[in-house]
Amino acid sequence: MVQGVETYSHLPGLVVLIPIIFTALVGIFQKKSFLLRNWIFISGTALTFAVMAFLGFFVLRGETLVANYLVAMYPFTITFRVDTLSFLIAVVAAGVWLLASIYCLQYLKDDHAPNRYFPVHVFTLAGALGVFLSGNLYTFFLFYEVMAFSGYLFVIHAETPEAFKAGSRYLMVTILSGILVFTGVIITYQLAGTLDLGSLGIIPDANIVSLIAFVAFIIGFGFKAGLFPLHTWLPAAHPVAPSPASALLSGILIKTGAYGIIRVTYNVYGIEMMQDTGWPTILLIFAAITTIYGSMAALVQDNLKRRLAYSSISQIGYILMGGALLTERGLAGDIFHIVSHATIKSTLFLTAGAIITKTGIKYVSQMAGVGRKMPYTMGAFTLAALAMIGIPPLNGFVSKWALALGALDAGQPGYAVVLLISSMLNALYYLPIVILAYFRKPEEGTVLYGDMLRYDEVRASMLVPILILALSLVIFNILPVNLPLVLAEFSARALFQH
Amino acid sequence: MIYQLPVLIVVQLLLGSFIMPIVGRFKNQLIPYISLFLMGLSHVFSIILLFRVVQEGNIHYHLGNWAPPWGIEIVADLLGAYMAVIVTGIGFLVLVFAWRHIQREINYALRGWFYTLVLLIAGAMVGMVITNDLFNMYVMVEIVSLCGPALVAIRNNRLAVEAGFKYLIMIALGSGPILFGIALIYMITGHLNMTFAGQEVINAIQEYPRVALLAQAFFIVGFGVKAALFPLHVWLPDAYSYAPSPSSALLAGLAAKVYIVGLTRVLFNLYGIEMLSTTPLFTILKIMAVAGIIMGSIMALNQKDIKRLVAYSSVAQIGYIFLGLSLVTGFSVTGAVLHILNHALIKSMMFLCCGVIIYQKKTSNIDELGGVGKEFPITMICFGIGAFAMVGIPMLNGFISKWYISLGALEYGGLAGLMYLLVIILSSLLNGLYYLPVLIKAFLGGDSQKETQIDKAPITLILPIVILAAGIIILGLLPFVPLQIASDAAQHLLGQ
Amino acid sequence: MAVLDLLLLSILVLCALAAVRTRDLLGAVIIYAAYSLLMAIIWLQLGSPDVAITEAALGAGVTTILMIATISKTGRYE
Amino acid sequence: MREIIVMIFLFGGVFFFTVGTIGVLRLPDVFCRLHANTKSDTLGVGLVLASLVIYEGLSSAGVKLIFMIIFIWITNPTAGHIIARASYDTIVDWTGQLARQKAGED
Amino acid sequence: MRQIIPVFLTLVLGIALLLVVAEMPTFGDINNPAHNVVSERYINQGVRETGAQNIVTAIITDYRAYDTLGEVTVLFAAIAAVLTVLNRLRLGVICPEDRERGLTDEDAGDPDSKDSC
Amino acid sequence: MVFSKDVLGMTLILYIFWLLISWSLNWVNLILGFTFALFVAIFMAPEIIKKEERPPFFARGFFFLRFVLILIREIFKANIQVVQIVLSPRLMITPQFVEVKQVMRYPVTQVLWGNSITLTPGTLTLDVDDEKILVHFLTEDMVAHFPENPVGKALVEFEGR
Amino acid sequence: MRMQEILILKIVVRFVIPFIQVYGFYVITAGHLSPGGGFAGGTIVAASMVLYALTFDASQGLEKLSHERASLFESLGAIWYVALGLLGIMVGGNFLTNGQIGIPLGTPGYLISGGLIPLLSFGIGIKVAVTVVSLYYSLVEED
Amino acid sequence: MIETAFLVAAILLMLNVIFCLYRAAVGPTPGDRVVAINMITSKTIAVMALVSFMYHEELFLDVAITYTLIGYTATICVAKYLELKRL
Amino acid sequence: MAEAIIALGQNYFFYYALILFMVGFYTTLSHSNILKKIIGINIMETSIFLFFVALGYVEGGQAPIMGRGAEGGPYMNPLPSALILTGIVVSVSITAFALALMVKLYQFYGTLDADEIVMLRGERE
Questions:
Q1: Which residues of chain G neighbour I85 with C-beta distances below 8 Å?
Q2: What is the mean pLDDT of residues B21-48?
Q3: How many interface pairs between E and G have CB atoms less than 8 angstroms apart?
Q4: Angle between helices A460-478 and A84-107 (to 10 degrees)
């Protein structure tokens, strides 16, 4: 693969445009026919995924796809730029999205407001893909806000008081995050005179103003990502959202924050300045705290989705840590962990959703016997939990390995220790669930829907996405070429090119 | 003929208002159509004028063929032509809106006067933005000032009359300082034409520095009262919230902006960039603008009435414009000029949305607006677009101007610049905090089972809102033309 | 002339103060009429008879009467 | 010679004006003050303007002055009259009684 | 509090003005900046150029007649505002919905017949 | 008939007024003045001119002139009296209201008489109608001297009685 | 006691009003020769009408000058002004052109001089007079 | 010489005006105030005439004429208001 | 300070205008009575007119009316007078409108006191 050939192509724009068009289509047709709506819905996400995957041919050829729109409006130019990093995360996002879409057809069958959910679901995809494919900070910020505000509709979907409460918090965080990112963007523009993300390091020199911008970026994205002191919205928002939405929120949307931090650190400031100034150390420390804190907090949660949400926080800690280590292998692990965590956490949330639909169980303590009732679902859950803990050959292991290597490269073995501790804590809060589900008999009175002991799996349309996701945890790692890892390494190398 | 355009726009609007009582004697029903026609015509003229100005530079028009220092000169420059387009365009949309809406808020015996006053105020606003003569500007300011309270009090209930009276008193208190400032400028320069006076002021400042400073202070205070600069805004919430919605849209969207343009012209044309960037008054102005941005937002937070909320948000937005102007950098002035347009669009649209809500629900209390979004999705979506534009979401026009003002703050440099940036950012947050609950309540509150339906309001109510919302989006996506004009106008103002 | 000017101006200020301080609104308006009378002389002193004649016509004929008309429609005392 | 006449008329007028002013200050109630107003002021204006007429002669200004004298002499008593009329109904005079009762309406 | 703010503002204003007046051009001086080429032309050429002896009238109705148009407009605005506020002169328009309620064009003239708002 | 004798007379008076005020014999001035005088006369004559209210002014002009002269003399006297009253250390006044009989026949002469009373010594007219005049007297002795007021006599002569 | 029963006032006002009006018209038309002009003259004329309305009754005056008629005159006055301004454009000049483009100025010092100035003053005068009276009636009129 | 006399007369008249103003300010009834204002009006007319002769500007007399013609309108207005409590 | 005193000797017109301005300003702000506020505004505007016209004064000048024989001497600057004529009209218009609003306010609230009106409004709301 050769890096650096830029090809002008409208395909990235198309990728973002398709979901928007399908949002409109879903919105128009959902009154007409239930079935038609579903087909349009699925085909929209599928088409997006297909086009996204098609971009892979170019990326694997080493080309960087660039598309500029509204050039005259500089600096408000909408630029898409697909390099390996963008492609990798975006294609995972699109894939997870497609699966979540298939899943939610069944999940939201008896929902109270499907007419809101389905368009928003597609529209948020546009936002997320726009963020991942953006070629300059303006585009990034634009789609970041679009995605964030449509994510609000995920959070408050249930329209319960808790949902609104969580929604308010989410909204607050979104606005704060938005304006902080805005601050960073505008200071960047002021300092650099450009917003282009194509080069490595556009900020000319390190001074107090650029530090302020950096901090603003970090805090802004940290809000979104759930960095330790800024994470409070996350455990509130994830449980109240519908499960596919939680899967997307946790799997994809919070990754935009991490993605943004990577972009800012490596593309806006550049590795040299970061290494010279050592600013990312702040991030590193907070990331470590986040890792430990998330795991510790997850231990004491009884609500399943809440536990998963805290787990997400802890995993975000890994990701940010990988970015902040400023080593190539650490970055590769970071990028790969974005991918792997996206799949793992989506799996976990989708299974949690499946469990909730079928049994109504929301708490870990009630989960006894679920394994027997829903073996496939619980199997997928187990697989994902193991991946999260970091059992080889699951992809969680691969990313953690790479991260640990990165930490060692950076000469900071302490962070590898943090990884280890966190992994152990992961085991401590995931394995009990599995054990409970498989080896404990349900107590009397906890039966919510039907017989807990009878085999009663969810419908295939929900099960298939879960299984595909679970499979993807393994499949890439047992193939001869671990394609995501290769791509991650490649993009990490690209970001380290001087 | 095209050479006569600048004055024709003004005169035809004024003439239109003069003939209204005569039309009313013979055929009442013609009044809306005539005013719509005239407003539309002047919009077309303004656009032609703008094109002309863009192509060929400023149009200097000498009233009565008297050369400038002796006669009155109209200079249709970019800023003026641009404002004329805004004024007539939004005025047209407001008139379209009012055509069916005023039956809710104005006694039918007074509706003809509403059209008369709208034409008057529009004519005076256009006349004010394109004039190059200090005293002529004062006269036009006074017409606007007189029509404003009348448009508030036309609702003829106790609250509206009280608000109108407060508005009138404050505005009259403001016109005194303006005239005094003109007198002082005349005293030290001997000219009323801004170009000539500006040339003289450079010399006069050496000899009479304090007089020049005092004149500046008077201009700022006078126009500040009229444009509701923060500590002088006391009339604003009542006036905007008790006025009929089309009036509110007109006053908040246009009148306040026009005053700001007047102040801009006076200050920048007379004093020149060097003095302005060093004058202590601009520091005070900056502080006032910042206070306005923060306090306006904070006061908007706990409003129960949707029009009042939007009105308080005006205070904050006007603070933005003043901040942009007082920073006196290329970007910030561009941003301020741009924000004049953007805020005009947004605020007019939001008040018109409030008008639709009042038309449909006969209430403007936020607590009673649960689920309005489901009942009138188009209106509330437009309202949401406006709110998001205020917050500064990209792709909406509010972002662009906010961007430029922030850039200006950074360009201003130093810790102060960062502080202004912080204020702008903080205010975005506050904007979000007070607008989003309304939207959430409108779309998600109330009876969730209510079936979504198309707005029942007449098309003439929906259409202006939709056009304005489309304008917000289009100007957010493609801000090229206004941006170019604004930056050229800013360059012109800054004398570069 | 300056003596006359100063005298006139002083009386003018006195007049303004009296108009402002009078509790009886009718009295205030009447004194305000005197204010405009003195103003007219000052316009003459300053050599602008046009303004003086306008002020004369207004002060004697319009402003005062409109104010009294308003008082007659409202109340006389503060 | 003419100047002396002018001066006499002028200061005569001023004298009567002064008397009127003192009267307005000293006299006890509206009606008595009106006496000072109507008589002294009318004559005062008349004398001052007449002095100017003498000074100027029958030019356009003189004619204007004469017109002024005529109009003042017509309107000033009328004004006094209607003030008295208006006060008559509404005002308690200086002796503390309603003016109307004193006039023998009983 | 109510009294303090006006007093304070007035005092500030007064001090500012006091300081400024000391600097102003001398009253009545022919060499003041205000007596410049503009007023010279009005005085010297005014009669020839406008035909009016009274230069003030020449200015308000010829040199600066546009201001006078504004003045006329101000008066028009004032009377329109007063008639509006006091509801004296009807200049009504009947909207379609009013017509559905049974109002006719004749009603547009009558402010008291059926209240619409 | 619009152009009655009244209208024309009024026009003439106003025209003279115009000419004296404008003090110019330019032809435009003449025409314009006449136009305005005529305009005002035509518009105002129905309101202004009521023939039955006034004695024949022009026929008895001499008496009117005499009345005016007597009036001026009386005004001087009145003012001297006011000076005496006002400038005396103690106010020697005994104000009182007295109704006196109306002697005039025409409204116009009643008005002239009323205003003359106001202008003449120590008296102030308060009310005028066909039967009586309400007069405010400044001092006691003026009440006694009131009937022999020369102005009244002159005015009665002017009325032609 | 009704105001219109005050004989002295009634007759004196009736005597003075025509003179005021003629003087007002003089001030209007001779505005370019002597102090005054449209506004002052119009106000004087208006004062005469107000005087009339005060002395007799407002309702009587209102019959002569109803609000409808007054607003007609106001509009006509303003339109007259604008029309004279547009005349400037007709003859090839700018708005409100007077002597610059071909309008004869006449001899200074006479009533017909100054081109359009007397006409403009006349329009203003009419408008102002009617406006002031209309203001008075608006404020005074009983509801 | 004669101008000085005019000036002195005008100043004396203005001094009178101060006292009239005192009456206008304290005058217990509106009637008193109106009387005082009436006196001020006539003094003003005289002063105006004097001023016009001091400056040799006979056109200033137009202003004085205006006052003589309409100066008592306000008086009538007040009187009518006092009598009828309306206009 | 010394220069201020010297200037007082010459610029007394300006000083008085400013005093009047302050009087009007203070009245408008501090008086709660509506009519007083209106009078205050009028005084304020008049003071500005005074100031403006005083700018046009020329020592020993004639009124700017030509063609009266005695030509030649310095003339007053006619421009301020011309401007002030317009200004006076504006001021009267504002006064008239304010008075109309005042009548209406009295009809609605039954008082002329601004504070009381605010209080009454608060009660009704």
A1: 37, 39
A2: 88
A3: 123
A4: 150
ipTM of the complex: 0.90
How confident is residue A418, by pLDDT bands cut at 50, 70 and 90? confident
Helices (H), I1-125: 2-10, 12-30, 34-55, 78-109, 114-124
User: pLDDT category, G1, cuts 50, 70, 90?
Assistant: very low
From the candidate CATH numbers 1.20.1250.10, 4.10.910.10, 3.10.150.10, 1.10.287.3510, the one assigned to the domain spanning I2-59+75-124? 1.10.287.3510
Reported confidence tier of residue A2, pLDDT bands at 50, 70, 90: very low
Query: Which residue from B31, B109, B190 is facing E110, i.e. has the nearest CB?
Result: B109
Condensed to tens digits (0 to 9), the pLDDT of residues F71-99 reads 888 888 888 888 888 888 877 777 878 88
Residues 6+ apart with CB under 8 A from C31: C15, C18, C19, C22, H21, H24, H25, H33, H37
Tell me the CATH number of domain D2-102, given options 1.10.1060, 1.10.3210, 1.20.1270, 1.10.287: 1.10.287
C-proximal residues of I, 42-81, CB under 8 Å: 42-43, 46, 49-50, 53-54, 56-58, 61-65, 76, 78, 80-81
Q: What is the pLDDT of residue G97?
A: 81
Nearest-Cα residue of chain A relative to residue B427: A179
State residue A273's pLDDT score. Answer: 84
Which residues 6+ apart lie within 8 Å of F12 measured at CB?
Answer: F37
Is chain G touching chain H, with at least 3 CB–CB pairs below 8 Å? Answer: yes
Region for residue B290 given its phi and psi (left: phi exceeds 0; alpha: psi -120 to 50; beta: otherwise): alpha
- Which residues, in sequence order, are CB contacts of E68 under 8 Å at separation 6+? E60, E61, G38, G81, G120, G124, I86
- C78 assigned to some structural domain: no
Nearest chain E CA: its distance from C27 CA (Å): 24
H-type helices in chain E, by residue range? 4-21, 37-50, 55-58, 65-86, 96-100
- pLDDT tops 50 at residue B482: yes
Q: Contacts of residue G50 in chain C, CB cutoff 8 Å?
A: 61-62, 65
- Reported for B445-449, long-range contacts at CB under 8 A and 24+ positions apart, including other chains, are B445/B369, B445/B370, B445/B371, B446/B369, B446/B370, B446/B371, B446/B372, B446/B374, B447/B370, B447/B371, B448/A112, B448/A113, B448/A159, B448/B371
Residue H63: the pLDDT is 87
pLDDT band for position A442 (cuts 50, 70, 90) = low
Counts for chain C of helices (H) and strands (E), in that order: 4, 0
d(CA C34, CA I23): 16
Q: Is residue F20 located within the same domain as residue F87?
A: no
Choose among A213, A205, A211: nearest CA to A180. Answer: A213
Q: Which residues contact I3 (CB under 8 A, 6 or more apart)?
A: E22, E23
| Residues 22-81 (G) with a CB less than 8 A from some CB of B | 68, 71-72, 74-76, 78-79
Residues of chain E with Cβ-Cβ distance to B142 below 8 Å are 70, 74
CA A19 to chain centre: 18
Question: How near does any CA of chain I get to the CA of E108, in Å?
Answer: 22
Question: What is the spatial distance between Cα G89 and Cα B360, in angstroms, rounded to a whole number?
Answer: 48
Alpha carbon distance A49, B356 (integer Å)? 42
Share of chain H residues as helix, strand and coil, in percent rounded to the nearest 5: 85, 0, 15
Asked if residue H61 lies in contact with residue G35, where contact means CB atoms within 8 angstroms, the answer is: no
Q: Which two tokens stand for residue B126?
A: 């256009």
Q: Does C17 map to a domain?
A: yes
Query: Are the C-beta atoms of residues B8 and B45 closer than 8 Å to each other?
Result: yes
Closest CA to B122 of B132, B134, B133, B130: B130
Q: Which domain holds residue F32?
A: 5-49
